[in-house]
Known about the structure:
Blueprint: H1 27-34, E1 43-47, H2 54-65, E2 68-71, E3 84-87, H3 96-112, E4 116-120, H4 132-139, E5 142-145, H5 151-164, H6 173-180, H7 185-202, H8 208-219
Parallel strand pairs: 1-4, 1-5, 2-3, 3-4
Amino acid sequence: MAEQLAFPQPLRTSYAAHDFYEGEASAVARAMLADPATWPLGKLVLTGEAGAGKTHLARIHASRTGAAQLHGARDLPDRAETPVIVDDAEAVAGRREAEEALFHLHNNLAAAGLPLLLVARTPPSAWNITLPDLKSRMEATAIARIEAPDDATLTAILAKLMVDRQLNPAPNLLGYLTRRMGRSYAEAGRIVARLDTLSLAEKREITTALAARVLDADAE
């Protein structure tokens, strides 16, 4: 009999509000996003490391407010008639047209009393913006930061990443990984992706033994 081929399950990332883990690491950021009326000057920068859940929180904010979701490296309009979210906002830096568009969009939203949420890995002071007027406006923006993960948050992130990949880990796997892995959201994503790949290639269940191989390979 021919060997049956195994194919990866499609990645189905859920951005539903009930799938965001409301732990201590994101508590301050969630509280600030919950009420745009309290944002100083009607604008806010949401920051955090890769994989921290910034996009997830931004999607939740968009569903609550009807905000238009834009990307900093692509065509930004000069004007908008709804609240706006600019994802990957630091990508405007060094792009003259993008910087000017964001400057005009910022002023348009401020004049209309509409909130502006900017999503980025770093605060505006690190963006290297060349347009002085935009630079001053961005650096005057309040910051909501998703902090580094505690154990409970890291466990929840691992669980969600596995659900998104339709994986069924051994019951003790999450605690095993949390105790031994690096303390970052990006590390959680990389480990789950590696476990998925190995499990598929070797047609094995995702167990602590498989996880140990991934962690040991990192230590070499």
